[in-house]
Design brief:
- The protein is built from 8 helices and 9 strands.
- The strands form 3 sheets. It has a 4-stranded antiparallel β-sheet with strand order 4-9-8-7. Strands 1-2-3 form a 3-stranded antiparallel β-sheet, sandwiched between helices. Strands 5-6 form a two-stranded antiparallel ribbon.
């Protein structure tokens, strides 16, 4: 926390001044209105005698820390994919990870439905339920489609007065949302898979750091959704194969005209019954029922 960092800095500076330590360094976070920043404070004695004072420098290490945190986040998401985590869990992990990396943004990931006509809720852990309920499963209207399909994404810096948000401006105000930035989620072949939306409580546009980070997270979202679609196709193929096998079995053992069991099924069942009879030592009998004009 901030108090703990301040206490550690104070003690470290005193330790160098008192000659108890040759130097001191501390990494600490600094949350600004637009981003999470990290700094490293370094304390060195001024000259050979620490009693002369100390030199304190603060270096911005935000890029390094963000890359470090992103790699940890990326590894966690890939591990969940490797163990077969379902798509809703993966998208929720992605959304929460983005919000941790960019605390000023609220993330909403909306995959397209199987027909490609509606955006559904994949994950929006920090947005109000009433807001998600109103926006989920909307038809892909022209304005929404444009936002979802824009190659460079769409940035709306004022939801209250933007024409594309006229129908939802009151809803956004109730949720305390002021700005939105959305990016399309596209497959490697260019197919639209959904939308990656980020909401802000202040009238702010995305920074270069935000754009870079979301670009990396989009690739993880594509991997998760494409894996889910591939699994769906595999399951559908297996179900189709099982259905075809059942149809072939039905054709092999039943008459196509009457749909009654045929001689092949009779021979099969007789063989099974005779084998069972031999193993158990019990007798079996076969009874024929003669139907006039219904003989092979």
């Amino acid at each position: 926390t901030g108090d703990e960092s301040a206490t550690a800095a104070h003690n470290g500076i005193l330790a160098v001044l008192n000659g108890q330590r040759p130097s001191f360094s501390l990494e600490y976070p600094c949350l600004t209105p637009t981003r999470q920043r990290w700094f490293m404070m370094v304390v060195m004695p001024l000259g050979s005698d620490a009693n002369d004072g100390v030199v304190i420098t603060h270096n911005d290490i935000s890029a390094l820390k963000q890359a470090e945190h992103y790699e940890q986040f990326r590894s966690h998401v890939l591990e969940r994919m490797a163990v077969g985590a379902p798509l809703p869990e993966l998208l929720d992990t992605l959304a929460r990870g983005v919000e941790q990396l960019c605390p000023h943004w609220l993330c909403k990931i909306e995959p397209l439905d199987e027909h490609g006509q509606r955006l559904g809720l994949g994950a929006a852990p920090s947005l109000p339920d009433f807001f998600n309920a109103a926006l989920d499963t909307r038809p892909l209207d022209p304005a929404l489609a444009a936002a979802a399909e824009a190659s460079a994404g769409v940035s709306v810096e004022d939801l209250a007065h933007h024409p594309d948000w006229t129908a939802y401006s009151a809803l956004a105000a109730r949720a305390g949302l002021a700005a939105c930035w959305s990016q399309p989620i596209r497959s490697g072949a260019g197919q639209l898979l959904g939308r990656f939306a980020l909401f802000q409580r202040d009238l702010l546009a995305p920074t270069a750091s935000d754009i870079s980070l979301v670009g990396q997270c989009l690739r993880l979202a594509v991997l998760a959704i494409e894996r889910h679609l591939a699994e769906q196709k595999i399951r559908a193929s297996i179900a189709l194969l099982q259905s075809l096998q059942e149809q072939m079995r039905e054709l092999a053992f039943h008459d196509t005209l009457t749909e009654l069991p045929n001689r092949r099924l009779l021979d099969d069942r007789l063989s099974q019954t005779m084998a069972t009879s031999q193993r158990s030592g019990r007798f079996c009998a076969l009874m024929f029922l003669d139907l006039d004009n219904f003989k092979p």
